[in-house]
Structure to design on (231 residues):
């Protein structure tokens, strides 16, 4: 299998796994940079995330133009292309509208590391303030600026964008982000959460963010998805 075919298959799995967890619904997208090129692969606008197959995945250049594929790219492709241009270290991006993390982006309450997996996002997630859809380059660049060097950015009244050094790392970030948001939400009902301090964030993030952890999580989702008939 070529590198591109493999990446397309990973995007299909990533989207279906996120759909299975209720993190992606009828909208949301995942992309992968084709290494060494100015191109990226992304699931298209119209195809259900529950029924996506590799042939549906389209190729865009980093200006957002369709290069190859039979479908239209997502309306918010600029989120992906602008971040790829700004962050050479990023090889995969997911944009979606998960329930708990989006609540923080609506309430304006900082999403902070309260659980071990949440430590990988640092002291507090950045918040992109414009609630409009990101449909042009100017807006995409503003999202990239809000993201900065972080692993994820909350988008006010809208959703989140998560980046990673591989599709598996990006997917892991998606799962960890929503998990931390859910835990912070419920823990806050009991009292003020005990956020990690700077040293704890550094140590816990280091012991958490590992290639073998991405693989373990990915393999688990693959097994679950097979059992559930999602792939
Ligand atoms: Zn969106």
């Amino acid at each position: 299998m070529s590198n591109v075919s493999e990446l397309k298959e990973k995007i299909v799995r990533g989207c279906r796994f996120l759909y299975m967890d209720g993190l992606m619904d009828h909208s949301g997208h995942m992309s992968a940079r084709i290494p060494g090129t100015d191109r990226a692969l992304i699931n298209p606008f119209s195809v259900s995330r529950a029924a996506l197959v590799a042939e549906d995945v389209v190729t865009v250049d980093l200006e957002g133009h369709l290069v190859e594929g039979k479908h239209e790219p997502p309306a918010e492709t600029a989120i992906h292309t602008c971040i790829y241009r700004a962050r050479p270290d990023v090889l995969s991006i997911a944009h979606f509208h998960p329930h708990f993390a989006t609540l923080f982006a609506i309430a304006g309450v900082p999403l902070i590391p309260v659980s071990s997996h949440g430590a990988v996002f640092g002291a507090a997630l950045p918040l992109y303030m414009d609630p409009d859809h990101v449909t042009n380059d100017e807006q995409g660049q503003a999202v990239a600026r809000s993201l900065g060097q972080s692993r994820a950015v909350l988008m006010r009244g809208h959703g989140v964008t998560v980046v990673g050094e591989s599709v598996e790392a990006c997917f892991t970030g998606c799962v960890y982000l929503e998990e931390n948001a859910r835990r912070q939400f419920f823990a806050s009902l009991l009292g003020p959460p005990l956020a990690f301090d700077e040293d704890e964030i550094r140590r816990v993030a280091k012991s958490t963010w590992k290639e073998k952890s991405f693989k373990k999580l990915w393999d688990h989702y693959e097994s679950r998805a097979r059992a559930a008939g999602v792939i």
Residues 76, 95, 97, 158-159 surround zinc ion (CB under 6 Å). Residues 110 and 124 are 6 Å apart (CA to CA).
